[in-house]
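Re: the pair you flagged

First of the two:
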Amino acid sequence: MKDYIAGRGRAMVAKLVNGVPGAFVTLSNLESFSFGLTTEKGEHYESETINSLLDATWVNKKGGTIETEMSDINKANARLMFSARVSEVAASTATAEVISAALPAVGDILTLRRGLATSVVIKDSTGSPKTLVAGVNYNLRDGGVFGSLDIVDITTGGPFVGPLKADYSYGAQSRATLLSAADEEYVLRFEGVSKANNARYLYEFWRAKFGQADKTDLISADVAKPKVTISLLADTSKTEDGEFGQFGRMTYLGVPA
């Protein structure tokens, strides 16, 4: 049987802590996944003849990279794609949150610090604060989902004095803070199957470090497919010629019975 690769499969990562991998998490529904190995060679050309012949080569450096497109931008993937610190925000309330330091003008857009906002009450800063009325002085955009509002009238019910302050409730939400995660390494494995012959292949990489996604198309006619480059590092606790190798290994598992 020919070992053609027309690949499908799933990739998984496990965070390395003191060289020991934790539980694996699937990088769901990758659009592409490819790896390449690189060597940098030294060369010597003899100087005894007029032809300057190449008479020796040797390997100076070894390395590798993985390139993948990740269309599922879930929290686990976003953590890796954007070097993000993912946190959970519990449902709670905000009180006297300043949303405009000065009195806004009609047409201004103001924002709350949290999305999924409900029970919004906006007051000004007069001695006895006056309340702006929803549907008269302002309109919540998308029912408060994004925590933004349009000022449509700043006269009725006034005069108002800045700053404006908001009281509101907000729902539970998740946050990925970009470029804020610690520098981390992972074990990466790819469980592959070839459509050409139904054969299974297992690829294992001992030390993988994620770079950031090159770009994420937030407006497009197709699903966004941010590309991420992953550096493959040597695990010097393993021997180069041993069972595991220092960068990884490929195991042919054949066709299931």
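Second of the two:
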Amino acid sequence: MLKDITLGQFFPGTSPIHRLDPRVKLLLALIFIVVLFVINNLVAYIIMGVLLAVVVKISQIPLGLVLKGLKPIFVVVIITAILNIFYNTTGEVLWEWGFLRVTTNGIMLGIFMAIRIVYLIIGVAIILTYTTSPILLTDAVENVFSPFKRFGFPAHEIAMMMTIAIRFIPTLVEETEKIINAQKARGADFETGSILKRAKALVPILVPLFVSAFKRADELAIAMECRCYQGGENRTRMRVLQTSRIDYVAIVITVLVCAALVSMNFMEFGWRA
């Protein structure tokens, strides 16, 4: 399961998605998130799913790799869908027991929330991090927040912390995998017993993982100090971010498609959240 966590990994490529300005990617990701939670009918979600598949194809990221990245959130998706099914009690009642009630609107809300989470992971967490290197992502975040520096906002520090956090996800996953294998070699059992017993069995994993994480953080801090790191003041960059024609085309296409999807909220398709 831990090997399926691919968030934070960068896969170099030459696809049009890779060549997009990272600032444009952040803008498109923001638009995508807003539209994802604005649309409320099944047809719009189906169209968005097809468009996401097209983007994945254009980015040249293997579909199996994308599906692999969804495995760790499967339980979260199921729990979220179930909670939303019981949350919405309007509509035709299909099943009722005590204060629990399942209705047609509740089922549709649960399905829509599950779709939203899956699309959110594919469109933002996977495609954005898969096609953008951590360095470019840092530069993009800092550039976007740079106007707020005059108000004392630490744009460079925030961008650096975000990038370091994303960068170290694969490292911590690999470290956790090694600790689990080492504990299993010593006879530890993480798969049988009650929930309380399994929770207690995680202690031998969490303690060395936290120790390793703090050790890596300390080593990183020492390495940055040895290189005389002083924040973002007067720093130059090897690659200056510049927008090109493909960036403007991507923005126009995204805005038009998202506007069309939002307009479907005013059409009668029957299946609504």
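Residues 155-185 form the longest helix (31 residues).

-B.
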